[in-house]
Design goal:
The chain has about 150 residues and is mostly helical. The chain has one domain: Ferritin (Up-down Bundle), CATH 1.20.1260.10. About 65% of the residues lie in helices and about 0% in strands. It is built from 5 helices and no strands. The longest helix is centred in the C-terminal third of the chain and has 24 residues. The radius of gyration is 22 Å and the shape is globular. The termini are far apart.
Length: about 150
């Protein structure tokens, strides 16, 4: 290899590292905060139904707040809005949103314990959605995916 080829290869490698910066990866605390906002709304929605699920969602809130602190976050988000209308339908909609948020967050969170928290929440939210569907007189397994996506 000639000296000219070596210099050209080095310059090419140097220039490959230049250019537009990649956008900063979204902070894990922010990703988890979106899930927390929905879980806070679920506490409110399930409290209106007088079900024991409100207590379980309070536990989810506590677990998410801990995970957010561990990820360097501090501020709690405002709760997501509870849909208007039938309280059972509203809770079902929020459970589906929570499941979709957990699935989305799972791919954006790198630490195993935080992923485990998301997996636990996803499982519990799927169970709650099935109970709500049953309470509405609908098939608890009406779709292939518990968050409402079609197969």
């Amino acid at each position: 290899m000639t000296r000219r080829a070596l210099v050209a290869a080095g310059a090419g490698a140097l220039l490959a590292g230049c250019g537009r910066e990649e956008p900063a990866a979204e902070r894990e605390a922010d990703v988890l905060s979106r899930v927390l906002a929905i879980e806070l709304a679920l506490v409110e929605a399930h409290s209106a139904l007088d079900g024991g699920e409100a207590t379980e969602h309070r536990d989810h809130v506590t677990a998410l707040e801990r995970a957010i602190r561990e990820a360097g976050g501090a501020r709690a988000p405002r709760p997501a809005a509870v849909p208007s209308g039938d309280p059972t339908e509203a809770a079902l909609e929020l459970e589906r949103r929570a499941m979709a948020a957990c699935v989305d967050a799972f791919g954006r969170v790198s630490r195993g314990p935080r992923r485990a928290t998301l997996a636990e929440l996803l499982s519990a939210d799927a169970a709650h959605a099935a109970l709500l569907l049953d309470a509405l007189g609908r098939d608890p397994l009406e779709r292939a995916f518990a968050d409402g996506r079609p197969a």
